[in-house]
Amino acid sequence: MSTSIILTTAYLPTIEYFALIAQSEVFCLEAAESFQKQSYRNRGYIMTANGVQQLIVPTLHSTQRSCIRDVRIDYKGRWQAEHWRAIETAYSGTPYFLYFRDFFAPFYENHYEFLFDFNLEITEMLLKLFKIKKSPVFTEDFQKEYEKGNDYRNLIHPKKEPLFVPTPYHQIFDDKLPFTWGVSVIDYLFNTGPDGSYLQKLPRC
């Protein structure tokens, strides 16, 4: 795999997102693009007793055509309480939820003005929990294309096939639901703990 990659910002990033970071030497976050709807930029997916649930961070319509770093979060609704309730309901019975819950709770109590900053702090916290000693660098100008094999901005998307072979791990509802790939890396964290070696070993499709 290339030693340098470029990714978009993401809310509750997927396992493949973190596998790419873990298997690269340098990762760059796109900070000069325009916001794109229906992507991982403001949505994440968790595994619940009823299947996959989508969690969307609402953004102010007036800033959606702005540079991604200028897109503001909309707090008119109670999305924070709803997201945290969904996460607690889904994962309270997992082996590691009680151990890690206090790392996540502040993100659903404090207000962040900008989506990019909110996502970045969650990503940096997850990197520390998985003991991935890397920090992102940021683009300064938007480029439509980068070197092939490095640019994953349009490859990790809810409507596209995963880049990594879905190596199964224990999921709390696997007694009644099949193993599900494409959910947030917090699903892996709460179910199996912060074993970063899993991310290092995932083979690409």
Beta fraction? 5-15%
So what's the overall shape? globular
Main β-sheet description:
3 strands, parallel
Q: Strand order across the biggest sheet? A: 1-2-5
Instruction: Tally the helices.
Output: 6
End-to-end Cα distance, whole Å, is 12 Å
Domains (count): 1
Order of helices and strands: EHEEEHHHEHH
- Kindly name the structural category: alpha/beta
Helical amount: 25-40%
Mean pLDDT: 94
Number of strands: 5
Oligomeric form of this entry? single chain
- The low-confidence runs, each spanning 5 or more residues with pLDDT under 50, are none
The value of Rg in angstroms is 16 Å
Structure description:
It is a single chain. This protein has one domain (4-201). The chain is of the alpha/beta class. It is built from six helices and five strands; from the N terminus they run E-H-E-E-E-H-H-H-E-H-H. 29% of the residues are buried. The protein is 28% helix and 11% strand. It has a three-stranded parallel beta sheet with strand order 1-2-5, with helices on one face. Strands 3-4 form a two-stranded antiparallel sheet. The two termini are 12 Å apart. The chain has helices spanning 15-22, 79-91, 97-104, 115-129, 185-192, 197-201, and strands spanning 4-7, 26-29, 43-48, 51-56, 137-138. Helix 1 links the parallel strand 1 and strand 2 (26-29).
